[in-house]
Amino acid sequence: MKITAFLLSICFCTSMFAQNFDFGKVSKEELEEKFNPLDSSANATYLYKFRKTYFEYRQEKGFVLVTEIHERVKIYNQQGFEYTTNKVNLYKSGGDEEEVSSLKASTYILNEGKIEETKLKNDGIFKTELSKYFDETKFTMPNVKEGCVVEYKYKIYSPFFWNVDDFIFQEDIPIKKLDATFSAPEYYKFKANTKGFLSVTPKMSKKNDRITFNNKTRHVSGNTEFSTSNVDYYANVYEFSLSDIPALKDEPYVNNINNYRSAINYELSYTDFPQTPMKYYSTTWEDVVKSIYDNPNFGSELNKSGYYEKEIDEIIGTISDPVQRTSLIFDFVKNKVKWNGYYGYYTNEGVKKAYKDQVGNVAEINLMLTSMLRYAGLKAFPVLVSTRQNGVPLFPTREGYNYVVSYVKLPDGIILLDATNKYCTPNTLPFRALNWQGRVIAEHGGSELIDLYPKEPSKNTISMLAAISENGTLNGSYRGIKYNHDALSYREKYNDAKKEDFLEKLENKYGGMEISDFDIKNDFDISKPIVESYKFLKESQADVIGNKLYFSPLFFLKTSENPFKLEKREFPVDFGYPSSTKYLINIDLPEGYKVESAPTPVVLALPDNLGSFKYNLLASDTKIQLVIDVEINQSIISPIYYDALKAYFSSLVEKEAEQIVLTKV
Amino acid sequence: MQVKHIVLYFILFASIQIYSQENLYTSFSIPINLKENANAVIRSSELNITMNAIDDMTVYEKRIITILNKEGNGSLDAFVHYDNNVKIKTLEVLVFNQLGAVIKKIKKNDFKDVSAVDGGTLYSDSRVKYLEYTPISYPYTVEFICEINTKNTAFIQSFTPVNDYFLSVEKSSYTINFPSDITIRTKEKNLEGLDVFKEELPTKIIYSVKNMEAIKPEQYSPALIDVLPTVIFASNRFVYEGVSATADNWMSFGKWVYQDLLNDTSDLPESTINMIQNLVKEEENEIEKAKKIYQYVQDKTRYISVQVGIGGWKPFKASEVDKLSYGDCKALTNYTMTLLKAVGIESYFTLLFAGNSQRSMDENFASMQANHAILSIPNNGQTIWLECTSQKAPFGFIGDFTDDRDVLVVTPDGGVIKHTKKYTTEENLQIIKGSYSVSNNGDIDVRTNVNSKGIQYDNKYLYESDTERDLDVYYKKRWKYINGININKMHLNNDKLAIEFIEDISFFAPNYSKIVGNRMLLTVNALNRNTDVPDRYRDRKLPLKIKRGFKDIDEVEIKLPPDFTLESQPDNVLIENKFGSYKAEIVVKDESTLLYKRELVINDGEYPKEDYETYREFYKEVNKYDNSKIALIKNQQ
User: Fold this and answer.
1) Do A375 and A503 share a domain, yes or no?
2) pLDDT at A569
3) Chain A touched by B630 (CB under 8 Å)
């Protein structure tokens, strides 16, 4: 028993030692491997992923940021070929630019038992100027085949020392071994922020280093004196060593998969050089807020008011009710300034120009709005938001946020406003901004968190009055009333579309159902719900078998498939907002038929009051009355409820498909 | 007196001019018929092309377009591509509000300037300047003026007044000036029924058109390119990336491609030639040799798109692909061709338009066309077509990416137009053989074998390489009308030799058959239910086109639940019409076993628009019968 353990451990050691991660030391075993034993579905695997980021002193430039990358990737099959083309994005701004150098790369294959190496040459490297701010270097590996290993290393020099790219510890394919180091001179104080599901802790140490200055002094006498001087300092070093990291697999209804990807972000808090005042970047949320607020593209833009005062005075006039004032100003901004599609919490051209040109980015529009609300005497504040696309801001960083909305505190509650979308109503933010919590910026730099997910469910009430005929044709009228987000998305689809097209699409959504008397109320009056109504005619809505009629009382409105198809799930299901849908259906039966059997009432509930489905059916001699209430009470549902959620939807689909049987009398 | 007259006349004329111009900047003056189905209206477009010499061409464009709504922004087309051979001389934009007043001026330097690399391309030296404009209200009007000079005269912009759906044209004109020693050929397409003006002079050709209504996309219609009115132009002598050429028909055009673009690209190291000769030495037959070489290329190379200068049309050298093991369509086609040559097999570089729309090269009009290259091997009067960018396609299988269209085959003697393989209705076959048993509470246990050929093979064979997790979801979606599927077995077999894709699947689904009272309702067709009906159009405008036909044959045995007896079953169905046929039949084998037989045939073909509604009705019927149910009744105990 002991011997076995001993042998095992020896085997382990040997196999550990067999791995050599020096560049070029690709082993036969690595090339022979047919699939990843820990995840046979992987198309490729990082055998080794190395990154080292550190500061290097340069006489003319001072400290520059250097990142060394070395990666070895095993390609198991053709689907893995995408990992043989790599891309390095290089930022540039105001004459400074990032540079890539010392690129070295090779492909290894096994040819009749021998390792064959093909080096990457210049013809496989491509440089492109993407835009004013980005260059891109791409390289694609030569001689790639199924089973090959590709390996590459390069360095990136960056003058943007305050911007250290995230250390990413989890990729879409597995990683067998990962080494990463971050080291920064004592003068740079960085703060580490971890995210994701893996627990990652660095080993910390201090390392001494020295800068040597070569000085040249020209004396009045004409002599030039050369001298050297040294500065000793230490660097803080953080080392990570991980092995067998599983691949991150995307799932439907996940808000943003990157929220769950393991990574560390180093954000510069402040710099503290000898004989130089400390320069703050950010450390706490208060610092983040302060540094954003102090930026001329935020605070002072917010405080400008001269450009709109006259118009706002006219608009609010003698109205004193704060809710009315808020809504008047909100409508004014939405109509006046159009969103140019750009995100950000800093203004670009400035609020004044945006006001004049009637076009602005998110910050210009919503800071302007906040400013106007304040001018009108309301307690209004900007709220920093991270969009769904940007992920969840877990740590105090400026990059954590990328959007700003406005918030008004009233005696009887609060109102969230976003004027970038003309169909947004108070407290209905666009879907992109519904992402956990926002940070309210108080007038003097303080901040507090606020939940961005709506409390109130988006309501949808559907009523249908219909008659089913002996041959299965359904004839009736439909009326749907939509509130909040349901109304918002309806207006986005309907208001800008051609009416005939919209109608045609609606008809075809229900398999070419014939629709007449189509009418929409309140399409532009966003203070009221959308009311959609029409008459319809649809054939083959019941099965006629013998002297019986069979049909589902929801007809074309039934939920036809379970949206959750994955067997298991790791991450939360994100609906964006709570919802509540009510169906009221009245069906007239054809003459001479009576109800033989009908579905029984049922109540389905998700655990912990997350949601419910109530089905209630009343059948009389000539009529059927059906009332259904479907509620999802939470915006986000934890994966521990996934099985329950999947089963709930499955039962819901089944119940909605249940049939009524009519018999000819 | 005389002078005064002229002046007056002049002023009058000028003011009319001004009036009519201004008129175009407001949206109020758009004729009502041009607003129908339109998201944008080209008020006036002037395209003036001047060929000064065969390596010097100026293109001036002035376009006034009114954008009616958000969807119309995509038709603004305010961009210009450029590279080392193209110089932008003028580029400016004026934006007008609904009333026709200028609200913004945008100069050349305010345009965004980015690399024109798309997602699928690794590198391209082409760049694009484009306008980024946020409308503050609709409708608005943009005047776009652009003038470029290029040294390439191989591509002459065509006269295509409308290039997209939902776009109408008030007035569009085209002028090309050229030196007398150059011959310009033209070809008109789909101009019938339009208000076209045309003038042909020895050194000048003018076209103009008025009042073109917007086209709306419709299902089962010809590709947009096949219905758009257009006039294409080509010069008999032209320069492409510094290479000059003379070509007035496909024969001579092909010769130019062969001699100037392909001649020096077929080099291979001796070692590779020996290796490849060695590889096929066992094979007697040319086809078997070619198969081995095709497999070799598929195993060795991968597709990477690199577009540099002449690389836009000239392939990289074969030796380059040999060394790097990657290339774009031209490079990989050329490489395969060179390898085949090394073992004495003749094959030809072939240019074509790739894509599902089956766009053909213009048979009688030689010009720089095409966006893809494949290889053709003559085989006793037949042709074998090889898609060299795919690592997975079976030998000779081209699928819907390049099937059934006219292509240019480049032979040493010149170019020849040929037609690629058409996959016929009978060839696009799917055979389902399956069985399922129904339990007393309505659960089903299913076993099925699906065999797909032709285009139906094409639609499925790439699933072979999906992960189990993705396939599980894929099959649940394929049978989306069955709730709660639990898949127990998935076995996929891609038979590349026979070009058949075979799926062996078994699954379980609870409560498939619905119990109502003491009856059970069973939708017999569980495995191949048609769920889509072609869209309904109140006013169909375009002809009906079914690009590819197919045939489905299903045979499914059903074991009834032990406690139930068949009460009623639908009648057998047979529908036959010009679009195809549908047969459904239930055979009672014994008291607990049924056999369900179904056959659906849809033929390819083109029909007038009036037939669309009948076609739709046919599908509705199919849909209805595919949902037919049998009623089972509980046995009396």
Assistant:
1) no
2) 84
3) yes
- Between CA A609 and CA A641 the distance in angstroms is 12
Distance in Å, alpha carbon of A78 to nearest chain B alpha carbon: 8
Kindly report, residue by residue over A221-248, the tens digit of the pLDDT.
777 777 888 889 999 999 999 999 999 8
Quick one: pLDDT at residue B22? 61
Chain A closest CA to B146's CA: distance in Å?
A: 21
State pLDDT tens for residues B464-519: 988 888 999 999 999 999 999 999 999 999 999 999 999 999 999 999 998 888 88
Per-residue model confidence (pLDDT) at position A582: 97
pLDDT at B619 over 90: yes
Q: Please tell me whether residues A361 and A343 are part of one structural domain.
A: yes
- Are residues A77 and A178 part of one domain? yes
pLDDT computed for residue B564 by the predictor: 96
The dihedral through the CA atoms of A165, A170, A172, A176 has a sign that is positive
Report yes or no: B546 and B605 within 8 Å, Cβ to Cβ.
yes
Could you tell me which residues come within 8 angstroms of residue B345 by beta carbon, excluding any fewer than 6 positions away?
B286, B289, B290, B293, B377
**Residue A567 predicted with pLDDT over 60:** yes
Q: Which residues of B touch A142 (CB under 8 A)?
A: 323-326
Residues of B in contact with A654 (CB under 8 A): 483-484, 511
Same domain as A194, residue A51: yes
Provide the CATH number for the domain around residue A361.
Answer: 3.10.620.30
**Within this chain, do residues A265 and A299 fall inside the same structural domain, yes or no?**
no
**pTM over 0.90, yes/no:** no
List all residues of chain B from 394 to 453 with a beta carbon under 8 Å from chain A: none
Domain boundary (A280, A299, A330) is at A280
- % of chain A exceeding 90 in pLDDT: 60
A540 and A633 in a single domain? The answer is: yes
Nearest CB neighbour to A124, from listed B114, B324, B480? B324
Query: Residue B8: which H helix or E strand, with range?
Result: helix B2-23
**Binary contact (B37, A498; C-beta < 8 A):** yes
Q: A423, A334 in Cβ contact below 8 A?
A: no
CATH of B2-240, one of 3.60.40.10, 3.20.20.150, 2.60.40.3140, 3.40.50.300: 2.60.40.3140
**pLDDT over 70 percentage in chain B:** 95
Write out the residue range of the structural domain in which residue A143 sits: 25-280
Q: Tell me which chain A residue has its CA closest to the CA of residue B630.
A: A545
Burial class (CB in 10 A: 0-12, 13-18, 19+), B53: middle
> What are B335-373's pLDDT values in tens digits?
999 999 999 999 999 999 999 889 999 988 988 888 899
- Give the helix ranges, DSSP H, for A348-481: 351-357, 362-375
CA-to-CA distance for A458 and A631, rounded, in angstroms? 10
Domain with residue A599: its CATH number is 2.60.120.1130
